Amino acid sequence: MNKLYIEGNKKLNGNVLISGSKNAALPILFMTILTKEKIELSNIPKLTDIRVAIKLLRSLGAKIVNTNKILYIDPSAINIYCPPYNLIKEIRASIWMLSPLLIRFGKAKIFFPGGCKIGLRPIDLHLKGLIALGAKIVQKDNYIIASILKPLKGKYIHLEKISVGATITIMSAATLAEGLTIIANAAQEPEIIDVAKFLNTLGAHITGAGSNKIYITGVLKLNGGYHKIIPDRIETGTFLIAAAISKGCIICNDTEPKHLENILQKLSETGAHIQTGKDWIKLNMQEKIPKAVNISTTPYPGFPTDMQPQFALLNSISKGESIIIENIFENRFAYVKELIKMGAKIKIKNNYIICKGVQKLFSKTLFSTDLRSSATLILAGCIAKGITVVNNIHHFKRGYESFPKKLNKLGANIKYI
Ligand code: UD1
Q1: How big is the CA angle at 149 (ends 147 and 152), to the nearest 5 degrees?
Q2: Which GO terms describe its cellular component (predicted)?
Q3: Are residues 71 and 178 in the same domain?
Q4: Cα 119 to averaged position of ligand 1 atoms, centre (Å)
């Protein structure tokens, strides 16, 4: 069943429970390689990317019990430093195995990571960071082979480009290095704070995570511990868009409004009525047609690239003309041709799109190309006129837990065919 059948013309209303963050859970899972003691992780989302990460850890020798969104991980028996390439290829996050394997074994060999084809996605900053701390790295036959002869030494590292991935790689390597490491021009995403919080629970000394300078004082050993994964801000944003495009009212529960400030600002510019509480966000479009908004993606606390396709859908059925500029990835407009098939008026120019709102989208057979665009096309199907079929649905399963089921509870009619 690799297709979705979606009945259109739906208004989406009601409550939805937000799952744990994919992009926090994945690095945290791989950081468990840094300790030999038991770890308990809760609020783990049920996603295919997470399943691949669990398989990867098990393939190294970790013992994992998986019950109802809680993982009990015993990493003491991990005894392999070269994870199977067929699993590494499946997810981008597998790059985060490099640093903990290197620290644990003094050597690591991993295949080049996979993930969404949304741009070139080099890993040079990860590797340069590890080299700056004292690692030796060779690239051969699509493998990265890293080694250290003596313990890594803390350094001042200025990232030439803000990178979530490289910040996490360097931060994790520095936890067990000798002395102080400073990461300047660091990424500030909530997921970075969550990884730092997890590592500190295990005994690491990290301060400044969430700002552009992170200080890590190396310790000799990490212990075990318990950590709860933060809510997924991109899943939250996607459900808020579902309310806005269908002129409905959705309350996202178990979320963290502080992580969505920029997204909420843009949504309120569309005319949506937004209320927030400690762990919930309510968006009520009050039957109104949204106003189109201009977007420019930048690293956190700027507007997230992972919400760019969903806002393009919103703009395509909103009043007025808008521009969306994509500054992070080179190839993140693949979904636009599918929206055009549905009647959207969008022009792609280099790294930006110009969108003129239309009154209605019309159902078509669609092909999703990556994670966020697949969620966008599914939402488009919910509001289009007629029956939409979305192909390649393995993409949404990587990052949206029970997406059709959650949407159906809000009033959609989506079936697997
Ligand atoms: C992570 C997220 C992804 C999100 C992105 C930006 C995960 C699994 N993925 O991806 O959902 O869209 O952050 O918020 O958490 N770059 C380099 N060299 C490097 C690393 C990155 O040039 O070594 C470039 C990238 O090509 C991109 C920019 O830096 O243009 C930002 O990438 P980065 O923040 O590292 O994204 P990811 O960690 O891949």
Answers
A1: 80
A2: cytoplasm
A3: yes
A4: 10
Decide which of 196, 220, 244 is a domain's last residue.
220
Identify whether 342 is part of a domain. yes
Q: Which residues are annotated as a binding site for UDP-N-acetyl-alpha-D-glucosamine?
A: 92, 121-125, 306, 328
For the CA of 191, the nearest atom of ligand 1: 15
pLDDT of residue 298: 98
pLDDT in tens, 214-248: 999 999 999 999 999 999 999 999 999 999 999 99
Residue with tokens 């106003």: 291
Is 382 a known active-site residue?
Answer: no
pLDDT of residue 99: 98
What is the largest distance, in Å, between two alpha-carbon atoms of the chain? Answer: 65
Does 213 share its domain with 317?
A: no
Both 11 and 51 in one domain: the answer is no
Asked if residue 97 has its Cβ within 6 Å of ligand 1, the reply is no
Q: Determine the pLDDT at residue 115.
A: 64
Task: Check: CB of residue 113 under 8 Å from CB of residue 123.
Answer: yes
Of the three residues 195, 220, 245, the one that is the final residue of a domain is 220
CATH classification of the domain holding 37 = 3.65.10.10
- 3-state per-residue secondary structure call for 122-136: CCHHHHHHHHHCCCE
Residue 2 confidence (pLDDT): 85
